[in-house]
Amino acid sequence: MKADASLAKTYPQVYEMVEFHNKGKAPHWTDYVSKDLVLAEVTPGQVVWEMEVKESHCNQLGNLHGGCVATLIDICTSFVTLAHEGKSKWRSMGVSTDLSVSYFLGIPAGETIRIVCTANRIGKNLASIRSMIYNSNGQICYSGSHTKFNIDSRL
Amino acid sequence: MKADASLAKTYPQVYEMVEFHNKGKAPHWTDYVSKDLVLAEVTPGQVVWEMEVKESHCNQLGNLHGGCVATLIDICTSFVTLAHEGKSKWRSMGVSTDLSVSYFLGIPAGETIRIVCTANRIGKNLASIRSMIYNSNGQICYSGSHTKFNIDSRL
Amino acid sequence: MKADASLAKTYPQVYEMVEFHNKGKAPHWTDYVSKDLVLAEVTPGQVVWEMEVKESHCNQLGNLHGGCVATLIDICTSFVTLAHEGKSKWRSMGVSTDLSVSYFLGIPAGETIRIVCTANRIGKNLASIRSMIYNSNGQICYSGSHTKFNIDSRL
Amino acid sequence: MKADASLAKTYPQVYEMVEFHNKGKAPHWTDYVSKDLVLAEVTPGQVVWEMEVKESHCNQLGNLHGGCVATLIDICTSFVTLAHEGKSKWRSMGVSTDLSVSYFLGIPAGETIRIVCTANRIGKNLASIRSMIYNSNGQICYSGSHTKFNIDSRL
User: Fold this and answer.
1) Distance from CA of B96 to the nearest CA of D (A)
2) What ipTM was estimated for this complex?
3) Is the pTM for the entire model greater than 0.90?
């Protein structure tokens, strides 16, 4: 994952998690996308990523694989919990309870996609984050919803 | 993917798709799980897979990654369309419209999981397949639902 | 809701909740289906309901309305939390975090449907229950998944 | 349903469907909300509704019932297909294949909610519409996603 070093000051938890992904001992499932993910914007309640689609992300028809889309939504939305401030601040990204993805248009290798992840609500115990994935033309191609449960008390 | 050669006679479409995954030019997203997937049972309306969880399927906490679970459900349920007989027979696996996954219990590397995929309904245009993933103790750890749209007329 | 009086001994929490629905001051959203719901079977981890579809449950095409299907799945799966025994016993039905429904076949007024609700997992904080709705011929017409969060500590 | 008469010119299909709901022979499932729904805005790709929450929409705790939320999302998003222009214009609202709802915050009787329904994509065969429901304070309380299949060719 690539992230601007200035994030270390503005969103230290987000920056540390990016570093954690980069320094983790391979191989892990996240490796298949994290080396290509670029953190484009972070604000409270929203994290935007960009990624160039590689053949290794695609199905045999040459489009981004549905499982890769789900993986991107899982990983990219999770960072929104760490960008959240306020009384129900999360120290970790929690665990998934539900993930749903809808597929509209295929995206072939070579395109640079934009993954916009927005908090619906970050509560004390539960977080819900939605995600929209856009192709190079700005068309919505996939959408997703991710519900996470806070496990800070167990850490 | 491993499948018994006898499937070539009983479920030729299923067998050909397994072969297609095995002979496909790497790298594709399916490669990250397909080499470990073993096709355990095929009946009309149901396909059962087994897989030993490797570290490369896991998150940094050592459990099967949510994106890998979604990928397994995407791939494994799709084969059910090819095992279907009757008037609304599908020649190909179609494209995904919706995929939803619920997560209950983590599964660490080393366990052999069982992925049971069952047709809710295979219609002329739409198919819905559900999936349950069990750990070595037979506990349900993840469930999923996959809706596919038939694109045979475009092939 | 109709339930056999013997449930008062075998599953007192389930029975009390049925009574609560029957004695509640009208009008509430649950009234639109609860007067027609018959509790057919209760076992730990599973609750089965039957209901005759009325015109008031249907859309203008004469089939069970998608919103009614979602309402039935919401209400009927929630009782499974109360039929659960063991260390993570729930005293109340919690609150919904996610509900998903898939639609396969329409069901017209006049048919008696069977709503089978089965626990995927009832944990201390979270419960997941799946549901299948069958028509008079035993065909699966709708499936659903419901995730609930325990709020016993707030009661 | 209330809608401005000017819609009869600008969005005739939307207006006719509102009339159809209003003149339909009672009782139908949609009656439980349609008399309270006010069509606030229609643009290509988006339909916004407002509704005052009544006790009859609520659960016994006094909040909008999860099944009513699902019913609202089902009905309100469906109108987006009729507000769509372009080569993949729909003549009818199609049938549901998948509906998913996430619940964040309860809304009590008395509040006026805003139901914003936005097309993800309206294609020739499939439509996906998302919905966000806001309380009087503008907080997101529920979100949903609805996938529909076009049945114009059968009409």
Assistant:
1) 11
2) 0.96
3) yes
